Amino acid sequence: MEQTEQKKVIFSGIQPSGELTLGNYLGALKNWVKLQDQYDCYYCIVDMHAITVKQEPKDLRRRTLEVLSIYIAAGIDPEKNTLFIQSHVPAHAEAAWLLNCNTYMGELSRMTQFKDKSQRYGNNISAGLFNYPVLMVADILLYQADLVPVGVDQKQHLELTRDVAERFNNTYSETFKIPEPYIPEAGAKIMDLQEPTKKMSKSSDNPNSYILIMDPPEVIRKKVSRAVTDSLGVVKYNDEQPGVKNLMTILSVIKGKTIQEIEKEYEGQGYAQFKKDVAEAIVGELEPIQKKVKDLVANKEYLESIYKKGAEKASYVANKTLRKMQKKIGFIPVSR
Ligand code: TRP
After folding, report:
1. How many CB atoms lie within 10 A of CB 301?
2. Secondary structure (3-state) at 147
3. Is the shortest distance between the CB of 17 and ligand 1 below 6 Å?
4. Cross-sheet strand order for the sheet of 180-182
């Protein structure tokens, strides 16, 4: 009985363009683990997206395998899910070209992430950075994904995906499933420790702004103790205390406690014990993952067996969709 055929399809990916943060872990990976039994999940390491801005080849190589190791160490089972590296499935690049020819310059010019990034990178804006959302459209549509778990910052790209898919379907007849965004419940968005109104990001210039999944315990403790709070001195969840709110979120997600429980626990106390507890919760959560990552990264053969198998499975599905696209567009099929 092919049970997987009835499961809804999930696709998501992370760029190996920097070290992964606690935000990636709590906002994405921890949720992905919960989805693996219920859905047919494709979790990709999007190395082709990463090169839209300059990457040092040896760092890209190391990080790609590290991200794969982090997926597995975080509990994403490579037997239940399809874990693969984007560049191993050439259908992504081919489909992206076909979809580029069905996307308007105007649509891409409106992407806020492009506007932000192109400001940051000044004169070195590659055509790839502009076209990047179309590659993401290809990623998603090739697998006929039903749901795409993403942070709010990617929602606009998902709307583009839906628009392009609908346009293609209307022009060439029904080809793609129209995917839905799957934004995790409120609480999973982890903010910058120094500027808690901004999302925690590995691209921040100040390392105290973020916690890396691979940060050693003493670094985590130091960063949490330096996290910006306020002068009110009460552990309460509200928008006037964004720093405290963020630390409460972190504690709540890791410990599985409600915000009310946390407020109660720290009633009448300042921030000292609270911050200590937050730091220990993070250390307790990440330390076992770090150990596993270190073991996995050292086991190149095992990793290779995972990404090889992943690429095979992914290619089978992706190529099927790609052939369909090519045929509808009017390309001459050739048997292979
Ligand atoms: N653009 C996404 C990000 O930067 C990563 C990504 C690439 C992705 N392709 C995807 C996410 C497909 C979800 C689905 O976060």
Report:
1. 7
2. strand
3. no
4. 82-85, 40-45, 9-14, 147-149, 180-182
Sign for the CA dihedral angle at 21, 27, 28, 29 comes to positive
Q: Is 155 a catalytic residue?
A: no
Which residue among the candidates 117, 155, 257, 324 is catalytic per the annotation?
Answer: 117
189: annotated active-site residue? no
Q: Whose CA is nearest to atom 3 of ligand 1?
A: 14
- pTM to 2 decimals? 0.93
Mutation to probe ligand 1, out of 43, 157, 158 (largest number of atoms < 8 A from CB): 157
Cβ–Cβ < 8 Å for 39, 7: yes
Ligand 1 centre from 151 Cα, in Å? 9
Instruction: Give pLDDT tens digits for 87-137.
Output: 999 999 999 999 999 999 999 999 999 998 888 877 789 999 999 999 999
Q: Which domains are assigned to the chain?
A: 9-183+300-329 (3.40.50.620), 207-294 (1.10.240.10)
- In this predicted model, what pLDDT tens digit does every residue of 198-229 receive, in sequence order? 999 888 889 999 999 999 999 999 999 999 99
161 lines ligand 1 (CB under 6 A): no
Q: Is position 202 annotated as part of the catalytic site? A: yes
Place of tokens 């972190």: 250
**128-152 burial, b for 16+ CB within 10 Å, e for fewer?**
ebbbbbbbbbbbbbbbbbbbbbbbe
